[in-house]
Design brief:
This protein is of the alpha+beta class. The chain contains six helices and 25 strands.
Length: 370
């Protein structure tokens, strides 16, 4: 195999592919990038067996072929090279060379047939979505995904496709996000799937504009955009019944400026206990007072902001890290929070309504130390 390409094209493709190489693996081949060169196209592929990323690059082809090269080595050398043409050459004994105008770098390749094949995705249902909408859905929900591998169903976002659009739900047991897009065209597809966080993080970073073709299969989800293809395993678990935990009776309403509340929480939480991150919201008719105290460090803080609160005075405790996350993901300038009791879930939202979008966030309180 022999071809030449620009350093930048190769570098950008390898940077994308590096997201799919495992940090530790019992299979050395997974640390490699599979390069397949033919008259039609030259593609690079990497996988960690959960997510597979493939990218096509423009090349000047001299000899078609396929090989597997260590991805990190290839990425490191392209990062260090100045802008130049790079020639990749592999002989029939798997000896590889990276050749530029000023130097030559030799390394050993692995046979291409050792590299895992792409899973069969025939029979997949196609759904097209704009890149911007997909990014909005991912960014609105992925922050609440659980990192607890013992609860695999919660380590992804539930995508529920229906005739009225798409509902995306994520939860880690402490907070829950439900995000609905009624203007999502599901192309007649109805069904649920739980999409892993790693795929969503990659898509959020890569997608900005353009269109994305989603191919929904029995066990896999594939996204195709321009010259890239990303494939992930779908989490084969039952997502919990989220509707049953969303309270319907919360009648104490807080309205405040979102940035003022978020800034106060950020400042006050600096002085909170480093293991509990506990802060309290003290609510009355005209204000919201954010307080914290850490007896271990003899530190405490409080700050007061103007707010409207409709209901009996209430004091409720939260983990400041979760609270900051939820408040920062509220759309618009004004935040509306619906409370019930100091030990029940509150609903966070905005007073501005966007057509075709419904967003609801739930956060569980923590018991305050007396």
């Amino acid at each position: 195999m022999k071809f030449s390409t620009s350093k930048t094209e190769l570098q950008q493709a390898l940077q994308k592919l590096s997201k799919a190489t495992p940090t530790r693996s019992t299979l050395p081949i997974l640390g490699c990038v599979l390069i397949e060169s033919s008259e039609e196209k030259t593609s690079l592929r990497a996988t960690d067996l959960e997510i597979t990323i493939q990218s096509e690059i423009p090349v000047s082809l001299e000899q078609a072929g396929a090989t597997a090269l260590p991805l990190k080595t290839l990425l490191d050398i392209t990062n260090e090279l100045p802008e130049t043409r790079v020639t990749l050459y592999v002989d029939d004994k798997d000896r590889a060379a990276i050749i530029t105008d000023t130097g030559e770098y030799d390394l050993m390749a692995k046979p291409a047939d050792e590299f895992p094949a792409v899973p069969d995705t025939s029979g997949s249902q196609a759904v097209n979505v704009s890149g911007e909408m997909l990014k909005n859905i991912i960014d609105a929900t992925s922050f609440a995904v659980s990192r607890d591998e013992l609860k695999p169903a919660l380590t992804g976002v539930l995508f529920r496709f229906g005739s009225n659009g798409i509902t995306a739900v994520s939860t880690d047991g402490h907070r829950l996000v439900k995000y609905i897009r009624k203007d999502f065209d599901t192309n007649g597809f109805n069904g649920d799937m739980i999409v892993p966080r790693k795929f969503l993080s990659f898509m959020s970073a890569q997608v900005s504009g353009g269109n994305v073709a989603l191919l929904i299969g029995e066990n896999h989800l594939t996204a195709k955009m321009k010259n890239d293809m990303v494939l992930t395993r779908i989490i084969d678990e039952r997502f919990p019944d989220y509707e049953s935990v969303i309270p319907k009776e919360n009648d104490k309403i807080l309205k405040a400026d979102k940035d003022a509340l978020l800034g106060a929480i950020r400042r006050v939480s600096i002085f909170s206990n480093k293991s509990t991150h506990q802060v309290a919201l003290n609510l009355d008719a005209t204000s919201c007072r954010i307080t914290t105290e850490d007896p271990e460090k003899s530190s405490k803080a409080h700050e007061q902001i103007a707010a409207e609160f409709d209901g009996e005075n209430l004091t409720i405790g939260y983990n400041a890290e979760y609270l900051k996350d939820v408040v920062s993901h509220v759309a618009g300038d004004k935040i509306v929070v619906e409370f019930s009791t100091p030990i029940s879930a509150a609903l966070f939202g905005t007073d501005s309504t966007e057509e075709n979008i419904e967003s609801l966030m739930l956060l569980m309180p923590i018991r305050l130390n007396d």
